Every structure is written in structure tokens, then in C-alpha cells.
Amino acid sequence: MRIVTGFRANVRAVTRTYNPGVPERVPDVTPELVREDLTEDQLQACLRATEVAVDTETLGLHPQRDRLCLVQICDRAGRVMLVQVPREQLTRPGPTAARAPRLKRLLEERAVLKVLHFARFDLAALRHNLGIEVAPIYCTRTASKLIRTYTERHGLRDLALELLDIEMDKSVRHTDWASPDLKPEQVRYAASDVTLLLALMDRLNVMLEREERRALAEECFGLIPTLVRLDLLGYEDLFIH
Asked: In this structure, is residue 43 part of a structural domain?
């Protein structure tokens, strides 16, 4: 298993007081890059957390066609872990749920909240490719749509700019994530997608509590796994008359 370690992100950089003006950049991190699964040390460190940020990169937007390539995780200390998922890992004989046992252990641990942006997509990719049923979850996109009703812009970049005054670079979003040798700009992009999620959750929770919508948000998060199951079964517009 290949692992690269480096500088941990300074979490204070994404939890500072908001100051209008020139947006700042996403804090630089050098993530730990591993293949196929978390290391035991990474797993145990994450299990000691109360919440972790999670994201995925795939070959496209159709989970049943476009395979999972990368899983990103970040904790409150700013430790970022990138797990590459090679094609051969997904085609080996045996149960799907045995493909990444440590990652499965973490993402299904009920004591650790998983924070994602547009969780519906990431949960589908993880369930279909690795047999992981992620829970419990918090979706920053869902929370944004519940509370930021003054805008139609609910992308991660929009949230980071408004709530954290941080400008995200999305120029390498559409790229070959299946490459065994990720380019430095791909690694930076993948890390940036999880570096800000916990800070965004904190800001969104303040807004949700202010408008007494926190409980409603949690009910919505609880519905997402069911929507994921319906998506993977091919159902569309099930609740439309």
C-alpha cells in the first residue's frame, strides 16, 4: 500500500471571522494518498472523531455506469486522506462489501457523523461500488437549499465563497480520476473538496437554528439513503402524481 504524508491543514484558516473583501484561497494541504483502503492508523484516528468530511470522485455522473475512483476524507484537525479505488479492486471475485473493509467500518460507524455535499450522489457511488451504506450523514447542499432560500446557487463553490469568503478552484473538476498517477492539481482539487465541509456545516447549522429549521434538516438527511436505493433501482419521479 502506497502512502504519502505531509503537512496538515490549519483548520483555523477556514473557521475565522468572515471579512468581506478579496476572497482567500483554500488552505494548502498535502493529503495522505493510499490505494484500495484506509490504513489501520487512519481508520483508528477517524473513529476517534465525532465527524468527518467525505467526498468522492467518479468517471461520470451515472453511478451504475461510471465507477468510483477516489474517496476523500478530512477530520477536524485538517488531516486529509485520499483513497484511490483501482478498477481491479472492483472486479475481484467476492462480496462487494469486502472490497474496502476499513473504509466500510468508518463510513458505517453510527458514532461518527459523515458530512458530504450532495450526499445523494456520493452515497450511491459508495453503495454501488463498495457495498457501503453510509450513516449517519449531513448534506451541506440539502442544508443550503433549506436555509439559503434567497438564492438558487447551492454549489460547493458558492457556499465556500459566501459563508467562508474562500474562492475554490474548480478548473480540474472534469478530469480522468481513474488515472493511477494523479496530477498535483488533481490531488489539490480532491483535497479542497473535503477541507471546507466541516466549517460549512458549522455555518449552516447556525443559520438553521436561527430559523428553527435544524430538526427539519435532520429529517431530510434521514430520507437521502432511501432516495439512493430508489436511484440505484432505476426509479424516477416516484412521488410525482
From this structure: yes
